[in-house]
Amino acid sequence: MDGKLVEVVDRTDRVVGTAPRSEVHEMGALHRAVHVWVFNREAKLFLQKRLPDKPLYPNLWESSVGKQVELNESYEEAALRGLKEELNLSFSAGLLPIKFGKTDFGDGRNRELITLFTVVHDGRIKIHTEKMAEGQFFGLYDVRELVKENKVTPSFRALFKWWGREKK
């Protein structure tokens, strides 16, 4: 079991308690999360495909990075940690991801208050094969098709629809 703690929050992002990271889904507790979307200069979005043995949403495509925010960690710190841990990408203070916005998501087991960041990266991305099955850049038309075909996680689907409305 993962003993790292996360903060349980209400819909206004006020901390109402803590819980082990491994238990927040079982509890159905609203908790903080970050997603980072890595675009290249061609406006293609890097997605990762979840491993087939993942307990939630196996074999589905999801955000470039998705992380739960740990106890006493900011959304920005979690985003930078996720970029490093999941994609081997490091950014200095001058190249921080851009905060796009915050929304809440819930599908029963997974209830997250998500802050979405975007970043542009044209270099090589080295994925961790023990954490994801594969990763690749997709044009936005292809991302829309993956969403229509139910080949993405519910949280990515919700974020993609929200992002499309908010960026107009």
UniProtKB/TrEMBL annotation:
<dbReference type="InterPro" id="IPR000086">
    <property type="entry name" value="NUDIX_hydrolase_dom"/>
</dbReference>
<dbReference type="GO" id="GO:0009240">
    <property type="term" value="P:isopentenyl diphosphate biosynthetic process"/>
</dbReference>
<dbReference type="GO" id="GO:0005737">
    <property type="term" value="C:cytoplasm"/>
</dbReference>
<feature type="domain" description="Nudix hydrolase">
    <location>
        <begin position="29"/>
        <end position="160"/>
    </location>
</feature>
<dbReference type="InterPro" id="IPR015797">
    <property type="entry name" value="NUDIX_hydrolase-like_dom_sf"/>
</dbReference>
<dbReference type="GO" id="GO:0004452">
    <property type="term" value="F:isopentenyl-diphosphate delta-isomerase activity"/>
</dbReference>
<dbReference type="Pfam" id="PF00293">
    <property type="entry name" value="NUDIX"/>
</dbReference>
<protein>
    <submittedName>
        <fullName>NUDIX domain-containing protein</fullName>
    </submittedName>
</protein>
